[in-house]
Amino acid sequence: MVAATQSWDDVLDKTGILSDSEIAALSSAEAASPVEGSPTVNAAIRKVVTAANPLAPEAARVRALGLLTMILQRSSTAKGGDLTMLGEDGAGFLLSAMKDDGPTGMVAAQAAGAAFGGAWAASDVLIGQRRVFLTEVCTKLSKPDLDETLCHGFLVGLGNSVRTDAVRMELARLTLSSSEPSSRGISIVAALVDPEHHHQVQVVYQSLFILWLLTFVKDPTGIALISEEMDVASVPRRLIALLREISADKVVRLALATLRGLATKGFTERLRREMVGAGLVNVLDELAKKRWPDTDIEEDLSALTEAARTELEHMSTYEVYRHEVLSGALEWSPVHNDEQFWRQNIEKLEGNQFEVPKCLAQLLRDSTNPVVLAVACHDLGEFIKNHPRGRSIAQQLKIKA
Question: With CB atoms 3.0 to 4.6 Å apart as the test, which of 157, 165, 292, 339 could cross-link to 113 if both were Cys?
Fold first, then answer.
């Protein structure tokens, strides 16, 4: 299999698809970044596409599609080059190849992602195909039985594409089912961050990489849209839970960088407050005790600590508690056993149609974490004890009093 991470010369030499003159033309094009309209270069690209035809053996198709991925990745940085010669026919060819559930589909996704993230990013003609690409990739990633190597490969393809605001916003708008929040584009990627779902750290890392790329959105509409989807997907809570469980430097670095982007780049206050509620300050304090060889980690720790503490200064004790509950990351912090807190804030628990008691009840039904279950049970007991109608409200919420 030809991986998208292999060197240019290595891929060119090993596929056996191109002649020496075509290899020389592509290599010089890489060095000079010309307008990719030369007959030799275009002929070489057509030959690669032909080699990846559906009648070819799978191994040959995979090699050809891997080479096409490399060409498309380089075209996205070439000055003036846009590979428009592939156009709608090229998009259709790659999208058709993506329907394969094996390595061919995976490498086709990597090639298509490289094209939609670079050469075809500004094409109005290919907007429909771009949507089909994102839908196809997310559909594959949402399958619970997807092989981890293939999962990683499809994530690479998605990561190749999420390089422009247009693609980022398209992914944020994507939903496979209007009735299931977990079927939305960003939610599908975010779920793959949960380490219990995978044995390969590369899957977690590549999922993080996509979430990190989304934080570079510049369009104001895109910032608002991605803020909402990051909130729906509980991205801050998931990343903080990940930082509690995993110690691989590259995963820690990317999780912190993503949280820093969400905390400091103009995304909504709600995301910052979810970070505080999910226990970010405590996690950062623990991480700061370690010696990190990567200076980026140290810088992100410092910037995030400042952002979290600033947000904390502007939040009341009840706001911190509410966001802790909504994040689902319950811990035995002092507020839970503070009788004065319950007496002073009991009426606030009626807010947003009793969202906090409802969330506590949902945690009792869904969580498998013994600490979360114990804290949720305790807090519902305090609500029943301190609220004048606590018992009847609990019965309405189907909580055994």
Answer: 157
